[in-house]
Amino acid sequence: MExxxxxxxxxxxxxxWVWRGMLRRSPETPGFYPVVHRGRFLALALFNRKTxxxxxxxxWEEADPWxxxxxxxxxxxxxxxxxxxxxxxxxxxxxxAEGDFLxxxxxxxxxxxxxxxxxxxxxxxxxxxxxxxxxxxxDPRGVLLKNDTRGRQxxxxxxxxxxxxxxxxxxxxxEEGRVWLPVRPWQGQKTGAFLDQRExxxxxxxxxxxxxxxxxxxxxxxxxxxxxxxxxxATEVWVVDASEAALAVAxxxxxxxxxSNLRTLAANAxxxxxxxxxxxxxxxxxxxxxxxxxxxxxxxxxxxAAYKEINLRAMRILRPxxxxxxxxxxHHLNEEAFLAMLKEAAGDARxxxxxxxxxGQAADHPVLVNVPETGYxxxxxxxxxx
Length: 386
Ligand SMILES: C[S@@+](CC[C@H](N)C(=O)[O-])C[C@H]1O[C@@H](n2cnc3c(N)ncnc32)[C@H](O)[C@@H]1O
Fold this sequence. Notes:
alpha/beta, Archaeosine Trna-guanine Transglycosylase, Chain: A, domain 4, Transcription Regulator spoIIAA, Rossmann fold, 3 domains, 7-stranded mixed sheet, 12 helices, 33% helix, binds S-adenosylmethionine
């Protein structure tokens, strides 16, 4: 497969993505191929001509393409080995696609069960070998192929969820600090839970232990991930989410964790926050963890306004000295824009906030400097000081 000048420039700068329009010559079928420019080897890459993002590189040295891919897989698993030994009942990301030089693949582990998402046609064709390699290296209790992500349609792949090895329960529980966190591998969002917020949820728990909030709020709370950590130290915690199915799991999790102070409310978060602000309600701690409002660059303006609206209202309902824990998982809203949005929201809310902490996605979701697309989660902890 041969790329033009523009494609070569990207690969030489170690960015793995080359668009279809930058190809000079390409194979018929999806697969693992060497990429060249004017006869010079540049990289090994996944290829699929069906999608705009036709080339995704994963290695920069000449080798057998599949063997090189397996080598990257083994290296990614090895990087997480210490954590697997230390927390066998925990949840973790074992493979973070491009962040681990494994484009098209996400592997999450929940208490010994693997949930795999394949997002590339080249890899789908090798899925039996992939499952075999995972089983051989990790000896898991089961492997679920949760191949229901929208990105697969662009690759021309079908959507399905099926067990590839062992039996996978409907509900799993993983240990996260002192909390049992619920996971729905078959039905849940992403691979069944949001592992990218793991360290931030632990941070929230530690903050609540120090500050003992009387009233806490987890907005866009899903299965109560943050709320479960907060409820161990707060007097009362409300989880608000649009999905009643997710809230039912949050209630079940409260029971499992013996927490009787967690309440749930099925509502549109925008309407809920507007109502609470109008009522003049007061909270000591508010978490905002919305879904991505900007899935593509063109959505950014509208998304910025939506992020600002929820943050402004959350700032209004925070009592003096209270904390706002706010996140954005949209790659298109970069760190600078996220902070600018918070500044505008605080100004419009006529409140002053101090930055207590800033963070991103959990460390097992590695970010490459060369590939900003591998980093997407922004997280800020703000304290109301005026
Ligand atoms: C990023 S997830 C939250 C993850 C959660 N904080 C955790 O740690 O597990 C976003 C949640 O927002 C919910 N959601 C999306 N749009 C909503 C809306 N307009 N109102 C309320 N909830 C919404 C989704 O159902 C989803 O559960």
